[in-house]
Amino acid sequence: MLEYYESPLALLRPACFRSLIKDIPEIMRTAPVPLLTAADAVARLESYSRNSMDQILGYNFDYEKAKVFARSIEGFSAKLSGAYIVTIFSLKYFMKDRKPFDLHTPLNIWNGILSIFSLLGFHFTFPTLVSVIYNNGLTHTYTHVSELYTDSKSGYWVFLWVLSKIPELMDTVFIVLRKRPLILMHWYHHALTGFYAIVCYHEDNAHMVWVVWMNYIIHAFMYGYYLLKSLKVPVPPYVAQAITTSQMIQFLIAIAAQVHVGYLHYVVGVENLAVSFRGLVIGFIMLTTYFYLWVQFYKEHYLDNGGKKYWLAKEAEQKQKKSN
């Protein structure tokens, strides 16, 4: 066949030419590979976009289709994390000798939206979590893909949580443009969480749901706290301390779920568990480093020298008394 003819010059050799003539009938019988027309390409793209938007907007939510979409943006998510880090430090350098932007109103709107969104996410996921625990047991929630991921309410809001890690990167933009302190704990967790969420979601890592529902309720209070602080509403320091404490507890619980499912699958040898090696590794590294960073933050702000948050609150209170 044609693979015998290494180059066009080979056809000049009589033996090769005769062989080619002999092979022509067989070549003619070979069905040509159909080419994708421009119209077909556009139709496929429109179908993909429509199915993707159906999942994002919650129309006929389908877990398998949502996973396909998440898988399709994994590479984008990794690149976005890198671009995010470059962008925020470039912005920080740009703002070095400039006055901070006010952004008071946009920030209030942003915090309000995220607080309400997170509260809704908790509202739509937690009852299903309780139902799965009641019917199948606690272990089932982080070892198997249940209705927590697949039904039209809880499943959809788990999917929204995964996607929400992308717009949440705007948190850092507000910090940099307002020239507020940009700490490692903040930008590191924003850079990593989105990629973790997308990988764990499309690789069927059921343990992620314990990050999702706890993150929803904590963020509902956290962004609500930010909103009140931005509105100059006096909030006692112990509220912020309680939020930070709940975040550390969240990490420990999520780590425990991951360790248990990893032990069951890779040590005991239990088959058919909803876990992937990559999801476990990324999740374990992420959560343990988060826990370490949050502990350091907690020590600095609430324990060392009476707690930074507490003495700042006292200073603010004293200034207010003097102004009155």
From TrEMBL:
GO cellular component term, pick one: endoplasmic reticulum membrane
InterPro entries hit by this protein: ELO_fam (IPR002076)
Recorded superkingdom: Eukaryota
Pathway: Lipid metabolism; fatty acid biosynthesis
Record localization: Membrane
Membrane topology of this protein: Multi-pass membrane protein
One annotated GO biological process: fatty acid elongation, saturated fatty acid
Pfam families with a match to the protein in the record: ELO
An MF annotation (GO) of this entry: fatty acid elongase activity
Transmembrane segments: 76-95, 107-134, 154-177, 208-228, 249-268, 274-295
Keywords tagged on the record: Fatty acid biosynthesis, Fatty acid metabolism, Lipid biosynthesis, Lipid metabolism, Membrane, Transferase, Transmembrane, Transmembrane helix
Family label: Belongs to the ELO family.
Name the record gives this protein: Very-long-chain 3-oxoacyl-CoA synthase
Species annotation: Caenorhabditis bovis
Organism lineage: Eukaryota, Metazoa, Ecdysozoa, Nematoda, Chromadorea
